[in-house]
Amino acid sequence: MMEELADLGADIVSLTLGIGAIFLLYVAISGACFAAWNFASGFRQKAGDFTSRKTVTFGDESAVTANRTASIVAVLSIFLIWGAFTGSVISPLHVPGPFIGETSFTYTAQNPAGETDDAKVHIIVHPIGEEPPDPALPASAEEGFAKDDILKVGAWRSKLLRAHRNDEGGGEDGFRVIAVNGQPIAPEQSVDLDDGAVLMTARGSLSFTPNKGLQMEAIWLPAPEAVVARLIEIANEGYQNVSLGENLFWSLARVVIGFALGCLFGIPLGFAMGLSSWFRGWFDPIVEFMRPVPPLALIPLVIIWFGIWEQGKISLLFLAALWIMTISARAGVSGVNISKVHAAYSLGASKWQILRRVIWPNSLPEIFTGARVAMGVCWGTVVAAELVAAEKGAGKMIIAASKFQQTDIVIMGIILIGIIGYGIDILMRMLERWLIPWKGKA
Amino acid sequence: MTGLVIDNVSMTFELPGGGAVEALKNINLEIKAGELMSVLGPSGCGKTTLLNILAGFLAPTAGRVDLEGAEVIGPSPERGMVFQKGALFEWMSVRENIGFGPVMKGTPQGEIDDKVRELLGIVGLQDFGDKMIYELSGGMQQRVALARCLANDPDVILMDEPLGALDALTREKMQSLVLEIWKETGKTIILITHSVEEALLLGERLLVMAPRPGRIHTEYQLPFAELGVGADLRETKKHPEFGPRREEILSMIWDMEEEIMGRKEA
């Protein structure tokens, strides 16, 4: 236990430092762009609006609006950084990549008799997936009892070399490699070279690792163009016999059905809680208890009860939307100005008329706010539920791809999921502006 | 017996922490049909409670209220309300707001349209019928509230500080409008206000209430409302009786407030 806590502590420290370093670096990039933008705006005509005349902007919320130039540059910078670390064509600058090409090192072998001889290891570091031809060995290769070797290794990989295998007497006890490039080496020691490093294993073999550089290998992070290429491929051919559109459609369909069911039951429930003390008391403990339970925590139970098919996922989304819609409808009803209700009664409205013409429209803004939250939660939940079990769906696609290390599909899926989630929110906001233009203007 | 009869109305309610508040005690009042009455008093004197009882939103603990011989037991379109603010329906246009009462009654649409047009003219909003409520200024919104109340043709109009949230200039215009409407329609109007001047200008009859327990302190019969109809209200304020009355009532309320403060400190 103590040991685990100590490990956790070390993890937290290294995580914090790592996040801090990345964050600082990114903020520094942002700061540099800001300085450049400021410099450039010296040549531009100043805006003439009211805000531009404000001398106090630090702390004036109304004077702070999103700088759209900054937004665009921020998105571009993300792609440039991504490109720079993956050797992409979209980025003009790249961080050092892995070593690729020919290199060599010399090792010194000692036979049981105590004689030494040098031999060269000719190395070809090639991109993964390629198989280059063997290089021609120089005439000196066969001189002495130590013979030259050829080593072909993929970039980012390392390879074990039994250098003594082709040497005369290499199989005898006492035959060993004592130096690399003139530097002495012993088991579990390594020697740095210009293009990589040589490590001697515990049993005396040499392992060569070419320099990895700072670029990411495609199985960890593919280049942006690889993701785009994969998107085009999947859009045309589908993935695992399911088209991209079908995957996304099923995720969306589940969200829409689950959300609609949540509204269908949640809104009347919220209204009942907002209009009747009995129902408020009756449902209060249930709602207040269920609300903080994350929908994802219900997945195991839902699977046990409903199985892994549509019924299970839709029930889960229904539950995710239900409490949010209940609470927002309740808040909407509670938020009705009593003057409006009194006025409506004095104008001769019946209870039903008040519900339909006063309470319902008056609670629409709250209901819409809830609906936006519920849609967001549902979208997150459906992806997670599909990760656990699904035949089709955006989450299913990326979890399947991750099992084959198809990182490009995973990243493509994540980006699509993000775009769709954002699109849903924009749609809801447009709907809100259209349906309840009076929101925030009372 | 016609008009509004308030017969020995009391309102007492228990406080959650124990003890009781006598918001109103033994109120007796007869308001004739067509009378314009303003009610004035320091906060906590029960004037809003009284108005809510007249409107039928609250049931008194003792006594009863009758309108034209029928007991008031709940809200009804016979007793229209005009609130200070926030009582208009933002999701409806001005026209729909004014037509709300007739729609509730199931009046044919043609009649509603005529009625709404007429009322828009009376309150001076001819060109604003299709605007949404949030597009109007505060003064215009109160005009809509007045028109909405009138659309139902109530016997009594109850006004709960209807002009309290308006700026001084708009307020003066609206005061003239209230007088005009009173004269033209002959409605009984009961108006609660915090402003002594407004109470004097808009009350044939002025009721000063006192707190703890809420009761009627003094009653005045005043000429200013009648004088003010169709006239410049600033002229009315120059009436020789106006100044002394205002001072008298102000010091009366001042004394009440002092008494409350003193009692709190003791």
Tell me, what's the shape of chain A? elongated
Shape verdict of chain B: globular
Subunit arrangement of the protein: heterodimer
Q: Tell me the span between the first and last alpha carbons of chain A.
A: 58 Å
Mean of pLDDT of chain A:
89
Q: What is the helix tally of chain A?
A: 11
Structural features, described:
The complex is a heterodimer of chains A (442) and B (266). The radius of gyration of chain A is 33 Å and the shape is elongated. With 442 residues, chain A is of the alpha+beta class. In chain A, the strands form two sheets. Chain A has a five-stranded mixed beta sheet, with no helix packed on it. Chain A has helices at 2-41, 68-84, 224-237, 244-275, 277-290, 299-306, 310-334, 338-346, 351-388, 394-403, 407-435, and strands at 101-110, 116-126, 149-154, 159-161, 176-180, 183-184, 190-192, 196-200, 206-210. Helices cover 53% and strands 11% of the residues of chain A. The two termini of chain A are 58 Å apart. The mean pLDDT of chain B is 87. In chain B, the strands form two sheets. A six-stranded mixed beta sheet of chain B has the order 6-7-8-3-9-10, sandwiched between helices. In chain B, helix 4 (109-122) packs across helix 5. Chain B is of the alpha/beta class and 266 residues long. Chain B is built from ten helices and ten strands. The N and C termini of chain B lie far apart (46 Å). The chains are: A alpha+beta (442), B alpha/beta (266). Chain A binds chain B through residues 337, 339-340, 342-350, 353, 357-358, 361-362, 364, 436-438, 441-442, and chain B through 55, 57, 74-77, 79-81, 83-91, 100-101, 104-105, 132-134, 148-149, 152, 154.
